[in-house]
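To illustrate this point, what follows is a protein record of this kind.

___
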Amino acid sequence: MIRRRSTPWIHKWSRPLIAAIAGLGALTTGYLTFEKLTGGSAACTAQAGVKGCNDVLSSPWATVFGQPLALFGLLAYLSMLIFALAPLVLKPGDNNRKQIENWTWWLLLVGAIAMSIFSSYLMYVLATQIKAICPYCIGSAIFSLSMLVLTILGRTWEDVGQIFFTALIVGMVTLIGTLGIYSGINPSGDTVTSTPGKPVQISFTPKVNPNPAFGWEITTTSGEAEIALANHLAKIGAKEYVAYWCPHCHEQKLLFGKEAYKIISDSLKVECAPDGLKSQPDKCKAANIQGFPTWIINGQSYSGVQNLDELAKVSNYTGSRNFKYFK
């Protein structure tokens, strides 16, 4: 009597596991997309002096073709979810199921390779350029790699060499495309001017130690919109909690410009560094400030550098939004 060889458990459960991981990835990227499009802040515990999730979401790498990168991640995860579950909705005896299984395995392999390569590049950027700790980003990289492992081990591949060849081609195309998309970003951290007639992109790399009295010198100038927004924030009683040594706080100053930030400094700013000028660490502790800068506007907390459009939106500012700078 010939005994049938049992199907390995990984072959039985690979598709449901891939679908579950893709579902988690879709929930994560969907949440980040919502926060980015609505001008909100992602729930992420930040530590003083350490960049976090919102720094990543506001970085140049977080936007692709004018849309949030998380949106493209959401579409990728939803595609993987569909590829994983598509054959399972058909009956085992259905003539089309075998063909759909074969095609979707290859689509899963291509998708998982591309997502893993792209996530690896973003992990490199996270560690070397943005220098931030982002649990969402790390989690997404783990999801991508896990789906790739499950795709390779989840079925019996007739030609292992074909897998290697596919990985090589897809990996090269993905890497070249990724480098092309981000080729316009200046990793040095200096200010980058956008297309003429458009706002100027601001970023900052400290080259000297900050002055406890004012941090670093503000080199940008304010327009009417920046000054009007600063006056509006002062009028509604907003607060900005900062530390003079914090580069992100200086980036926030650069977005406002020298004239507008004087209004912020005179009436909104709360210095949290104990050795800073007019320091008020007790107020920072009472407000449970975990990172800098942190804005308190209409009772809501917003952590990290905020583009002026975002501050205008959350503060119900109705004046001109012809802001000169963005991050």
